[in-house]
Amino acid sequence: MRNKKTIFLGDSDQQGREKAVYEALAAAVKAESLDAAVQLVRVAETGKAGQGVVVRILPENIDYVQVKPADAGRIIGESVKKNKKLEDLTPPAKVRQIKIVLRNCGRIDPERIEDYIAGEGYQALKRVLSERTREEWINEMKLSGLRGRGGGGFPTWMKWNFAYRMDSAEKYVICNGDEGDPGAYMDRSVLEGDPHAVVEGMMIAGYLVGAQKGIFYIRAEYPLAIKRIQIAIDQARSYGLLGERILGGDFSFDLQIRLGAGAFVCGEETALIASIEGKRGCPKPRPPYPTVSGLWGKPTVINNVETLANVAQIILRGGAWFAGIGSPSAKGTKVFALTGKVKRSGLIEVPMGITLRQIVFEIGGGVLKDKRIKAVQTGGPSGGVIPEHLLDTPVDYENLQKLGSIMGSGGMIVMDEDDCMVDISKFYLGFCVDESCGKCAPCRIGGVQMLGYLRRISEGKASMEDVDKMERICAAVQRASLCGLGQTAPNPVLSTLKYFRREYVEHIKERRCGAKKCASLLRFTIIQEACKRCGMCLRACPVAAITRSAANVYTIDPAVCVKCGKCYETCKFAAIKQE
Amino acid sequence: MHRAKVLLIDDDDDFLEATALLLSAQGYAVVQAKNGQEGFAKVKHESPDVVVCDLMMTYKTEGIDTARVIEEDAGSRGIPVILVSGAYREELPALFKQNKPRTVKAVLEKPLHPEELLRTIEQLLADRRQHTETLARDVERMVEKWRGVPGSLVMILHEIQKHFRYVPRQAAFEISRVLDVPLARIYEVLTFYNYFKLEAPGKHQISVCMGTACYLKGAPQLLSEIKRILNVEEEHSTTDGLFHLQVVRCLGCCGLAPVITIDDTVHGKVQVEQIHGILAEYMKKNEEVTA
Lengths: 579, 291
Fold this sequence. Notes:
The structure holds two protein chains of two kinds.
Chain A: E1 5-11, H1 18-31, E2 38-42, E3 53-58, E4 62-64, H2 72-82, H3 113-118, H4 123-130, H5 134-144, H6 156-165, E5 172-177, H7 186-193, H8 195-209, E6 213-218, H9 223-238, E7 254-259, H10 269-276, E8 300-304, H11 305-317, H12 319-323, E9 333-340, E10 346-351, H13 356-363, E11 373-378, E12 384-387, H14 397-402, E13 411-416, H15 421-435, H16 441-458, H17 464-480, H18 484-488, H19 491-509, E14 524-526, H20 536-540, E15 546-548, E16 554-556, H21 566-570, E17 576-578
Parallel strand pairs in A: 1-2, 5-6, 5-8, 6-7, 9-13
Antiparallel strand pairs in A: 1-3, 3-4, 9-10, 11-12, 11-13, 14-17, 15-16
Chain B: E1 5-9, H1 13-25, E2 29-33, H2 36-46, E3 50-54, H3 62-72, E4 81-85, H4 92-98, E5 104-109, H5 114-146, H6 153-164, H7 169-179, H8 183-192, E6 204-209, H9 212-216, H10 219-230, E7 236-237, E8 243-248, E9 260-262, E10 265-267, H11 272-290
Parallel strand pairs in B: 1-2, 1-3, 3-4, 4-5, 6-8
Antiparallel strand pairs in B: 6-9, 7-8, 9-10
């Protein structure tokens, strides 16, 4: 045996149990007379908490968990000597993240085109320009099954095909980087971390549909993304990848940047076009769709940042490769911004079809402070909540829609038992009401009315009838609104009502907020047995709702109390009850 | 040539009459008002170029309040005010220390010396003219960059805001003139997008993230604490011009929730009790600079 093997072993729970295993392994090594070929190393940290004694064999990089001293003979005799993997000791397959969109993020210098080119950069463009016909490439995109990552999930190839078939001398492609969902920052990370991938995606889209101009529409709030895309465009131009007769062919294409200005509705295609035309970002009725009549009345393809970042890889590795990842109805990967009450928050890229439970517990590491999970919210203000008992649903466009939520652009927020669902739907609806452009009445008026009902519910001033009325308005707003913003604005309300009606009833009938979030429903009382008569609460109260009687007994007058919670925070003896 | 218009506000008839005589003899158009309320109405109607205002009229600080009302009115903000003080002049520094309206450009003492008044008015008018000219030049330069590009209004407004940190009313007038676009069109766009500011922001920009993660982890409490300490509303600046408070949708660092940023400094996982200390540092730094 020429190659020397190293065996690391450690107790993942730091209880010192690896000592016995170490001795058993050492004995086995001796018995097989492999002393010269195997080195045993005891380590303190294994990176695998809660899995007993962990053994790792290098250079094969084989991990065994829950190893007992009795297993030592097999490990040395079979695994090390005969290279036979011991299935019963192998840890269960973990959910693996797959990096396609984020493949370069954090790995290359985004401000150097050379770094991007070194990793197959612009090879896809070269292939598209020099091999096969446009139809064939669009067909390749069809094969990949790539669907829009901005939320709608419209098949990308179909959009391109529509625009390709339009007979027009002037066509446009637009990259939608107006990422406005609270809690979502996938597009920003891609624009900042791998700008050339998006530029290349734009150029391929431009070539395939027959456009001469591409426009990046990026939020002004993302200055670094803007800067890096500008650098990428300039570098590509100086390399002859943009401009006239690219790579010696007859394709001419150029890119420019337009800035968003803080209007959520501009993520909607027709509103985005209006904004690029220098107008207020108000949506227009569709049809005509932008692929028929878009920017300046010309056929226009609008793709999301993440969608475009997939394109070059699909071209290079083939549609079939991409279609092999993910679930039957949704191909490829999706980037999510996993946040909220989760231990490891951040961006993740996972294959479609993974379950929410796997995302939260295996990738996210579980709920913060190990509290009970109540729901996962997806799709931002246009999405809905998915309760704990449905977390095993595989994530794809249709499944989420069936549950009353949407895939959205990829915000994923974990909520625990301390979150009040009435408060959550108030938060999201408030966002949509704020961001409504005001053009169509269902969204403009309906939103405000719904918000009014929600406020009354959270203040304990509503009746059950109000819930019915609210549901009726929701249905009207969903059906009659002009654009996606209004059509999806009721989702947070409807989905919380569907899965957490109990909480609404509790607010209305018992005037109680179980999660203690709705301030006006809180009641503060003093627990006399615990009270030390220190008088701190009396001094802390800003409205003099606390009084001291002659017998030195403190009481809170609920009629005066403004529920600010100052007494509760001030009391050192936990003598104030909040309910 | 256009005659500069001066608005005189004083409750003393003799003062009004005498000063009006002096100014019209110099070729100024003169408008008069007898108290702050009437004065502000005249500001709106007559759009004077300079306002000369008495400090104490019906009550002690009416002059300061009038200047503030002018400052707070978007249409009148740029009009300079000369505050004239008779009684209570020794209290003026203390009153100003609390909050001096930015419109007050000069303070003169009664009895007024005619030459001093005339000189001050001349100076303020010259400053204003120069300011308008520089602004017009700046705006023209920025518009030029985008001339001929269709749909460039939003981008021009971005340039203006980048330069001035907000979009001054005067700049909007200039764009309208240079591009030959109706002012209403410009304001239609300006007021639709909440990225554009119509007021000069304070020196330090406080952004409170109201993304979902931050919301769940207590951002509303942080916001109300900041409002309480600074006595300022969202999207407004403190009266001393030190802070501008804004609420943002998501700063894209949900792992640090709740997050506030002050200028470019990110404060993550902020507790309500820490707000006081964070703000105090900026105030202290500012005091050191002014001292």
